[in-house]
Amino acid sequence: MSRREELAANLAEVEERIAKACEAAGRDRSEVMLLAVTKTWPASDVELLYELGLREFAENRDQEASAKVAQLRHLEGARWHMVGRLQRNKAKSVVEWADQVDSVDSVRLAEALAKAAHAKGVKLDVLLQVSIDGDTSRGGCPVPEVAELAGAITRSGDLILRGAMTVAPLTMKPAQAFDVLASVVSGLRDDHPTVSSVSAGMSGDLEDAISHGSTCVRVGTGLLGSRRLTLP
Predict the structure, then answer these.
(1) Any idea where the Alanine racemase N-terminal domain is (predicted)?
(2) Predicted confidence (pLDDT) at residue 232 exceeds the cutoff of 50
(3) H and E: helices and strands count for the chain
(4) Which of 67, 100, 169, 203, by CA, is between 20 and 30 Å from 217?
(5) Which one, of 88, 51, 89, lies nearest residue 72 by Cα?
(6) Does the pLDDT of residue 219 top 70, yes or no?
(7) Is this structure's pTM higher than 0.90?
(8) C-alpha closest to that of 81 among 170, 163, 178, 195
(9) How many structural domains comprise the chain?
(10) CATH number of residue 20's parent domain
């Protein structure tokens, strides 16, 4: 089996899972975006997924992503997401390649991204990353601090708050975590009209996420297989 055939088979399986989950939840398939997490995989795999119809791709390391995106500038309509933990000193570099940063979890990071976006003359789409259990060692803003961070993002004038993202904690059932995120996003919509995205669910728990209102599932292993490093 060629790599293209392998990816096509994986994509068909993931699409079937998403479609069935949407049907079970009484939702339309068009309500859920498939975000391909291409971290640690080569640009050639992204090209194949693009040829198979995907347009949204995610990376979690600035060094790897900046090099990969530079190779793939010819992919018209491709959008790039930063989904990993981000240090403030990387903000300028990330703004050069990312169309959206999905892991904004502090006011200081929001300020750094806003400064970088302003210098580049762009409006940067962002998601607020929520720490459902309050353990910020893995990234994320604790739920009680979400409103403050959302306000800082929107006041910047250079960032557009599109929604919120979370990774289900290992100490909690995914469905429970996703229910909390749905409530957080519902509250954000009251004060921030640009908010619409609920980014939740990965290869192992996308069905639970879709049943709790996810509008974006982040799938890496389910599409590409086990990880392998492309850069040291």
Answers:
(1) 10-226
(2) no
(3) 9, 9
(4) 67
(5) 51
(6) yes
(7) yes
(8) 163
(9) 1
(10) 3.20.20.10
Tokens of 141: 């803003």
Q: Of 66, 70, 106, 100, whose CA–CA distance to 88 is shortest?
A: 106
Distance of CA 76 to the CA centre of its chain: 20
Arithmetic mean of pLDDT over the chain? 96
User: Is 179 domain-assigned?
Assistant: yes
* d(C-alpha 36, C-alpha 59), whole Å: 9
In a domain, 231, yes or no: no
Instruction: Summarize pLDDT for 193-210 with one digit per residue, the tens.
Output: 999 999 999 999 999 999
Q: Where are the alpha helices (DSSP H) in 121-173?
A: 146-155
Alpha helices, DSSP H, located in the chain: 3-25, 43-51, 62-71, 91-97, 107-120, 146-155, 174-191, 206-211, 221-224
CB-based contacts of 48-52 (< 8 A; 24+ apart in sequence): 48/3, 48/4, 48/7, 49/7, 49/11, 49/223, 50/75, 50/78, 51/4, 52/4, 52/7, 52/8, 52/11
Token representation of residue 106: 């502090």
Whether residue 95 is contained in a domain is answered as: yes
